[in-house]
Every structure is written in C-alpha cells, then in structure tokens.
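Read as amino acids, tokens; as here:

___
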Amino acid sequence: MNHKAISIRPFIGAKDFEVSRNFYKDLGFEEGVLDPKFSVFKTGDLAFYLQDYYDKSWIENTMIFLEVEDVDDYYNQLLTLNLTEKYGVKLTPTRHLDWGSECFLHDPSGVLWHFGKFNK
C-alpha cells in the first residue's frame, strides 16, 4: 500500500470528562468541542480525540508518544504546571536511553503519555 496519510488521531477515554478536559487544556492543547461528550484537542497539526467513556482495562493500557524538540525542557515545563498537585497524576523524570530520551505523564484517567525525542 502507498499511504498518503495526512494525520493520525487516536481516541482516548476519560474517567471524569470535565477533569480530563481541564487537564489537557492546562497542558496547552486547544479544545474543539464536537459534542457535549466528545472533543478534539490540538497542538499545531497534531490532534487526538477525548471521549466521555471509561473502560479501566482499555484506558490503563493506552499509551501515546508525543515527540518534542527538547525533553528536558518539556519536563521542566510540566513541573511548573503543578499537575501532580492539581490532578493527582504521576510525572516521571526524563530518562536518557540508547534510542533517545523520554519522560512520562499519566493523565487523570490513567492514559500514559511518553514525551520524547529520538536520536538522529
């Protein structure tokens, strides 16, 4: 197949939709409300859908990798947002590995975000 893809947009769920909406807005994503229980969150040309739906086994096995320019800087910006205090989420410091670097952030529902940078 010859993919001529334009974008990819994962769907994630929320245990508490309003809390998750606020969390992602605090992270700097712009929300577009598509339905009272369904939104799209964008940053630049990238986006994902957030839905008011929760299935523990699905959510706790959902991971998203977002590549950023500077992982250490991104981690420091995450620290300044006080997300762990505000939302009770887990933020894991940057790890530098053979393939690149990454830090981790769980959202309020349990979705695991990897913020990383690949070595060139």
About this structure: The beta strands are 11-13, 30-35, 38-43, 46-51, 63-67, 91-96, 100-106, 112-118.
